[in-house]
Amino acid sequence: MVDGFHSFHWRGCELSDPELALAHDELADPTGEDAYLSAFRTLLHSGHPAASGIALDHFQYAGGLARFGGESALERYEDEVLAVAREVLRQPPTPVGDSGFVGASHASALNAMLNLAEECDADLIADALAGAVEVNVRAAGCRAAHRALEDCTGPSPRLVAALGALAFDENLDVRERADALSALYDAKGPKATELLVRATESDEAELQAEGAAGLMEPGRFPAHRERVERLVASLPDGVGHKARSILEERGWFDSTHWAGAELDGPGLRSAHAELRLPSGEDSARRAFRTLLHSGRTVAVGIALDHFVHADRLQGSRDAGEIARQVLRQPPSPAGLSPGTGAAANHLSALAAIERAGAGASDADLIADVLERAAVRTVRSRALTVAGRVLRAADGPDRRLVDVISRLVFDPGFREHRRSALHVLSGSLGAEATPLLLRAIQSEDRDLQVDAAWQLSRPERIDEHRELLVEVVESWPPGMRVARFNPEWVGKAVFGGMHSVHWKGNRLRDPELYRAHRELRAARDPESACRALRALLRSGQPVAVGIAFDHWWHPEGIERVAGAEARAAEEAEVLAAAREVLRRPPSPAGLSPEFGAEAGHLGALQVLRAARCPGPEDTAALAAVLERPAGAKVASAALDTAASVPADAESADPGLVRALGALARDESRSAEDRTYALHILRDVRDGAAAEESGPTHREDTTPSPS
User: Fold this and answer.
1) 431: CB partners within 8 A, 6+ apart
2) Which of 65-69, 374-378, 552-556, 599-603 has the lowest mean pLDDT?
3) Are the C-beta atoms of 89 and 109 separated by less than 8 Å?
4) Predicted model pTM
5) What is the 3-state secondary structure (H, E, C) of 538-598?
6) CA 510, 516, 517, 523: dihedral to nearest 10 degrees?
7) Taking burial as the number of CB atoms within 10 A of a residue's CB, which of 245, 319, 453, 517 is the most buried?
């Protein structure tokens, strides 16, 4: 059943007949399946244009929901719906009245026929399209026409003519015209084909694309193959997506690295055309062999690209060997491949070797390619193949490993350093560790973080944890690199978050440092609570602040030790937070990101998380509201004040006075003053009313007095 839906084409229409109005109410807000179905049939068979139109809209809407995984209770009435829709189309279109446009009745009928129209409905749909003056009618008519033409065993001259008239009506939007052409795809007979060919000659790229897509239907494509392929290749970006998709669904593939390249002679061009969209398996293999064994650079490259792309060609034994021969040749000049540029032949060959199954015997060849690669893309692809070669060998090929290692540490190959390191770490196992240890000392932060990430993997981390701790803690807070977020490495090394407000700060006291590490990766609730208390009782601003962050944040003690451990420490944490809020702000240099505001921010978060503050808590909060350490603290204090449960009996007078003073303070931002007023109004007691003044609740500007 559909709940809350009025209609597509009759919105704003209220049925005057009481019985029909009740039926519509039931349809929009069903009380039960039987009542819902009865209401639908009442409207459908009413003979009232708006009522039957609403029912037809409900039928289509319910069917649409069913196609997205729901269920349509109205599906059982398909025959009745189709009969009513046909009868509506036999009547003149409704004028502007109950609906907002001429022909709403036809739009509802055609829309309901979207998946029901049959061959016998073609003329009815044609007449509706011919008389349509409104876009909704034309759009629904084109969709219904598509369905009717699918079922037609022969030509439907009137419907084809009606669609052709829309397609070439220059007064219509080009998208409407394209929809009309789309409906012609399944139309039989030469007239429909003639219209699609005419569309490919249009000045409008969208019409060209729709015409090409229509000519790809199996019965048309052989006669128009050259036209379609030429047109699809020339269509601008953003247009012709449907046509390209249809070609690709049918196996059409030009090449990967040779788009726009010229083949020598009609024989090779014919073989390429056959390979792009084969007429059969045998003909495809013959065309492939013609190109592969031609000795022509472009043709061989295209054949290798097809070998990689098409499963049907995987039985070829020659492709891998010819690809190896190509890699021993000089790189192809840029002019041979307009789309790829220089060395397109090596790119095609590397992909083909990988597809054929590169093995240990290819180690020297790939090392040669890496050493003399003419362009960056060849070196990148060769690294991928090198990883496969190394993994296939019983033992690592020393020359290939040495060549890849040079790429890691040679500043001239900066763009390949990380990829080369990944190939070695993923292929050599424990033998890659010395390279990773060298890379983690690199001044290149991207390479350093990558090496740290590899060393922090489960199979390596225990052996190198102390080094990783030292490296991770040397990174500045908020550091960004290209591939990995440094925080991921930190979490792998420490087991949890550092803190929120004190990142980049390593505790100097060894006992506190150990307590922080224990808190980040506690073995059990008891050790987590012990570490939290050690930090909290230290009296050191950073250590206390870290304890606050781990108490209130979801990724802190609750994650590692559970909600019970967090609750057990609440009283002591709250007491410490009150004490911090009574003190001056913490020294700015202790928090690289939050400066002097860090200490008060963490303590305010504790008050908010506790949500049950007592008089001491609200007194401390009032003091911060009066003298915030900065803009972030001011905002956090207001958020905390808003979270304090307060009514006429429990409102703290000191907190109310602090909020009132803030609301009147013209040196504070309008946003903070307005926020303070809203908090006061929510308290609803006499003192708050006096502080907030006579301003009405809906006002948003604080009083200047």
Assistant:
1) 396
2) 65-69
3) yes
4) 0.54
5) CCCHHHHHHHHHHHHCCCCHHHHHCHHHHHHCHHHHHHHHHHHHHCCCCCHHHCCCCHHHH
6) 120
7) 319
CA distance 380 to 389: 15
How far apart, in whole angstroms, are the C-alpha atoms of residue 576 and residue 537?
Answer: 8
Q: Which amino acid is at 262?
A: E
Return the number of other C-beta atoms located less than 10 Å from residue 589's C-beta. 9
Specify the DSSP class assigned to residue 496.
S
Alpha helices in 91-134 (DSSP H): 104-112, 122-131
- Amino acid, res. 358: A
Listed residue (437, 428, 491) closest to 464, CA to CA: 437
**CA–CA gap between residue 534 and residue 669 (Å, rounded):** 40
DSSP H stretches of helix in 478-556: 486-494, 510-520, 525-536, 541-552
Q: Identify whether the C-beta of residue 138 lies closer than 8 Å to the C-beta of residue 166.
A: yes
CA 200/CA 247 separation, integer angstroms? 16
Quote the CA–CA distance of 224 and 453 in Å, as a whole number.
56
656: nearest Cα among 636, 634, 641, 667: 641
Q: Name the residue with tokens 């401390």.
A: 620
Average pLDDT over residues 551-577: 91
Task: Say yes or no to pLDDT of 73 above 90.
Answer: no
Q: Letter for the amino acid at 146?
A: H
Q: Name which of 118, 78, 123, 87 is nearest 105 in CA terms.
A: 87
- Do residues 501 and 602 touch, judged by C-beta distance below 8 A? yes
Q: Give pLDDT, residue 699.
A: 35
Provide the Cα torsion 126, 129, 131, 134; round to 10°: 170
> Of 138 and 241, which is predicted with more confidence?
138
pLDDT over 70, % of the chain? 91
C-alpha dihedral (175, 179, 184, 185), degrees to nearest 10: 90
Which one, of 176, 231, 171, 182, lies nearest residue 205 by Cα?
231
Per-residue pLDDT at 430: 86
Q: So what's the pLDDT on residue 697?
A: 32
- Longest Cα–Cα distance of the chain, Å, equals 96
Tokens (6 digits) for 574 = 């709250």
Separation between Cα atoms, residue 543 and residue 580, nearest integer Å? 12
Q: Is 482 exposed, middle or buried (0-12, 13-18, 19+ CB in 10 A)?
A: exposed
Residues 91/105, Cβ–Cβ less than 8 Å? yes
The whole-angstrom separation of Cα 407 and Cα 420 is 6
CA atoms within 13 A on the CB side of 270: 6
Give yes or no for residue 242 having a pLDDT over 90: no
Judged against a pLDDT cut of 70, whether residue 150 lies above it is answered with yes
DSSP annotation of 695: -
Residue 667: CB atoms within 10 A of its CB come to 5
CA-based nearest residue to 659, from 644, 638, 643, 640: 638
The span from the CA of 263 to the CA of 274, in Å, is 14
Question: What one-character-per-residue DSSP string does 67-97 give?
Answer: HTT---TTGGGHHHHHHHHHHHHHSPPP-SS
605, 598 in Cβ contact below 8 A? Answer: no
Q: Are 413 and 407 in contact (CB under 8 A)?
A: yes
> 345 to each of 329, 351, 352, how far by Cα in Å?
9, 10, 11
Residues 6+ apart with CB under 8 A from 335: none
The DSSP string of 620-635 is: HHHHHHHS-SSHHHHH
Count Cβ atoms below 10 Å from residue 551 Cβ, excluding itself: 28
Q: Which residue has the tokens 């006291």?
A: 509
Q: Give the count of beta carbons closer than 10 Å to the beta carbon of residue 198.
A: 15
> Alpha-carbon dihedral of residues 480, 484, 486, 490, nearest 10 degrees?
170
Q: How many residues does the chain have?
A: 705
**Helix pair angle (135-151, 157-167), 10° resolution:** 140
